[in-house]
Specification:
With 105 residues, this protein is mainly beta. It has one domain. 11% of the residues lie in helices and 48% in strands. Strands 1, 2, 3, 4, 5, 6 and 7 form a 7-stranded mixed sheet that branches. The relative contact order is 0.18.
């Protein structure tokens, strides 16, 4: 499995004093095996948490479904993140962030 990590900053435009309305830093992880990629994100301010965001299969990126949570790429990604100390794992359901179900082990 190939693992890529991209550091990302999401922030507003600073005002005239250089103050931001919001400022977040995160690492975006992309786990790829063959034609399947899973993307997860972890914010610097909460290093024990990571959220699985999407899956790409044969070049088509889409939101995760419950069935995707047992995909071998996602399961390997889960293990990798846990080995980095991220034990509060969630997934984006399309409307909210939910704890990764126990079935995704």
């Amino acid at each position: 499995m190939q693992i890529e990590v991209f550091h990302h900053i999401d922030c507003s435009t600073p005002d005239k004093n250089g103050v931001y309305d919001y400022y977040y830093e995160c690492d975006v992880y992309q786990f790829t095996d063959g034609d399947i990629s899973v993307t997860a994100r972890s914010y610097d301010e909460d290093p024990e948490e990571a959220s699985f965001m999407s899956i790409t299969i044969d070049g088509e990126c889409r939101g995760l479904t419950m069935a995707d949570l047992s995909n071998p790429v996602l399961l390997s990604a889960k293990t990798h993140l846990q080995n980095k100390g991220m034990n509060d794992l969630k997934w984006f359901t399309g409307t909210s962030y939910e704890p990764l179900p126990c079935a995704a082990t």
